[in-house]
Amino acid sequence: MFKLARYLRYFKKEVIIGPFFKLLEAVFELIVPLVMASIIDIGIKNKDTAYVLQRGGIILLLGFMGLVFALICQYCAARASQGFGTMVRNDLYAHINSFSHAELDLFGTDTLINVLTNDLNQMQLAVAMLIRLVVRVPFLIIGAIVMSMILDLKLSVIFLIVAPLVSAVLYLIMKKSVPFYKARQKKLDKVSLITRESLSGARVIRAFSKQEHEIERFKRANDEVADIAISVGKISAFLNPATFAILNIAILTILWFGGIRVNEGSLTQGEVVAFTNYITQISLALVVFANLVVIFTKAAASAARINNVFETVPTLTDKAGDRSNLSSEELTDTGLDGYPLISFENVSFAYPGTDKYALEDINIDINEGEIVGIIGGTGSGKSTLVNLLPRFYDVSKGVIKIKGKPVQDFSIDSLRKIFGLVPQKAVLFSGSISDNIRYYKEDATMEEIKWAIEIAQAKDFVERLPNGYDTIIRQGGKNLSGGQRQRITIARALVRNPKILILDDSFSALDYATDANLREALKKNLKNTTVIMVSQRANTIKNADKIIVLDDGKVAGIGKHEDLYRSCHVYKEICDSQIS
Ligand SMILES: Nc1ncnc2c1ncn2[C@@H]1O[C@H](COP(=O)(O)OP(=O)(O)OP(=O)(O)O)[C@@H](O)[C@H]1O
């Protein structure tokens, strides 16, 4: 929590002024019982209406000024807490964006969303409370005790019994309830996960008629959160009755002993009333204090989660200086002669947190301008292989080189500029079709966009849309078909005329004729581009200059279709299974 406190330095004014005014308000609150006492002891006793009205006016004035001071504090608290939240959220978001796939896998999307929303909201609340109540509450408790000691030292002994008693009740309740708050956060993550899964997979759920199952799954997770909340509620429910029981007994005691002291003449009636006011103030302040403990306990759990994200250092280090302003041609001009464009040298890779290699001992050379097909069964490591090229992950063993230079020696931005990547899952962003194509080249002209769209075989359908290139893409492309989405993602990767184009199973939603036309157009228009095509379909990669066959993370064969069909049984099996 303290690490995040450094953000408060931007709100020094609010952090000082806010509590100061709240303190003034508390001072006024402490004066009110004394004025009340004087009204009873002087005004009422002497039937002096003018005195009562004058003192009543003072109470009103104190109340009004207290209100103004409270509002100033509230304003400071709102400014500081919202500003704090915005700053931390921006930095956290930027930090998450520096994560490689390994860190994203480690946390999971739901945890990251919860950290950015729930946890940050919790912290914002804690900052607001820090300004509004952290100084006020102890001041009010101590102030009320001191004031009553000044009034009557002997009677104030009651406070010395009541305060520890209420504190003990609070401590016991807190001790029991705090662990539940931490557990609740974890359960909330689960609810978020299920919510996201069920909403994004709504079509699949309906297709399999699994609504009941999903409702049940959600209900179970939700019930778990509710159970925790109820358990905490049951414990916290003791708080108010217990405190008020102690408070009322204390008031009775004050009235009892206060009465005796009044009869003795060592205390006035007004002072007894002031006493009861002070004890009420102390008890209420202690209840607020208990709530503060709850808020700060939750905030501490949230701060730990936020700090955990902040402290996670991206595993991908960017050693080289950024040269992404250069063209990909210049970037790949490493000055080293005789090297293939891409080489995998004894590469093995295991996903973080797993001990099984997803790729093992891979040795591949890819030359400039080649069209390379990668084929293999599901889970054989095809996507993993292409994901290592732009350094979404770093290899566990061996090295990947671009023109003889290890990929780690490029800055990440420069390296990724060399590639045009079409991921397996067609992800589009909200905005128009042109906006989506410009995602990879902000200054792309309409001609370049049309060029990319035409090669991607998307021209016909885009131009037939009522708003053409300005058609708005909704919710990641829900208003487009799977094949249309895929073609837009292909156009997005093409718009920059990349040096190396990676198509990760990007034709899977295309019909055979479009698949063939697209390959033909790529060959005709991207003469200098090296194309790496991952596919499950033998037909798609059959005419490639080089086919790499993967089997369970290992290279089962490299060569042309005819040779592989003869020599590689894995490849033959794939081809035969698709013919039959
Ligand atoms: N993020 C990940 N974390 C852990 N293991 C992973 C991750 N992604 C993939 N794997 C594992 O790595 C292996 C290779 O997966 P990969 O996605 O590369 O296969 P693929 O050949 O592309 O499969 P498909 O054709 O089904 O897309 C699989 O066993 C998979 O379970």
From TrEMBL:
<keyword id="KW-0472">Membrane</keyword>
<keyword id="KW-0813">Transport</keyword>
<feature type="domain" description="ABC transporter">
    <location>
        <begin position="342"/>
        <end position="577"/>
    </location>
</feature>
<dbReference type="GO" id="GO:0005524">
    <property type="term" value="F:ATP binding"/>
</dbReference>
<keyword id="KW-0812">Transmembrane</keyword>
<feature type="transmembrane region" description="Helical">
    <location>
        <begin position="238"/>
        <end position="258"/>
    </location>
</feature>
<dbReference type="Pfam" id="PF00005">
    <property type="entry name" value="ABC_tran"/>
</dbReference>
<dbReference type="InterPro" id="IPR003593">
    <property type="entry name" value="AAA+_ATPase"/>
</dbReference>
<feature type="transmembrane region" description="Helical">
    <location>
        <begin position="56"/>
        <end position="77"/>
    </location>
</feature>
<feature type="transmembrane region" description="Helical">
    <location>
        <begin position="20"/>
        <end position="44"/>
    </location>
</feature>
<feature type="transmembrane region" description="Helical">
    <location>
        <begin position="133"/>
        <end position="151"/>
    </location>
</feature>
<dbReference type="InterPro" id="IPR027417">
    <property type="entry name" value="P-loop_NTPase"/>
</dbReference>
<dbReference type="InterPro" id="IPR011527">
    <property type="entry name" value="ABC1_TM_dom"/>
</dbReference>
<feature type="domain" description="ABC transmembrane type-1">
    <location>
        <begin position="16"/>
        <end position="298"/>
    </location>
</feature>
<dbReference type="Pfam" id="PF00664">
    <property type="entry name" value="ABC_membrane"/>
</dbReference>
<feature type="transmembrane region" description="Helical">
    <location>
        <begin position="278"/>
        <end position="297"/>
    </location>
</feature>
<dbReference type="GO" id="GO:0015421">
    <property type="term" value="F:ABC-type oligopeptide transporter activity"/>
</dbReference>
<protein>
    <recommendedName>
        <fullName>ATP-binding cassette subfamily B protein</fullName>
    </recommendedName>
</protein>
<feature type="transmembrane region" description="Helical">
    <location>
        <begin position="157"/>
        <end position="174"/>
    </location>
</feature>
<dbReference type="InterPro" id="IPR036640">
    <property type="entry name" value="ABC1_TM_sf"/>
</dbReference>
<keyword id="KW-1133">Transmembrane helix</keyword>
<dbReference type="InterPro" id="IPR017871">
    <property type="entry name" value="ABC_transporter-like_CS"/>
</dbReference>
<keyword id="KW-1003">Cell membrane</keyword>
<dbReference type="InterPro" id="IPR039421">
    <property type="entry name" value="Type_1_exporter"/>
</dbReference>
<dbReference type="InterPro" id="IPR003439">
    <property type="entry name" value="ABC_transporter-like_ATP-bd"/>
</dbReference>
<dbReference type="GO" id="GO:0016887">
    <property type="term" value="F:ATP hydrolysis activity"/>
</dbReference>
<keyword id="KW-0547">Nucleotide-binding</keyword>
<dbReference type="GO" id="GO:0005886">
    <property type="term" value="C:plasma membrane"/>
</dbReference>
<keyword id="KW-0067">ATP-binding</keyword>
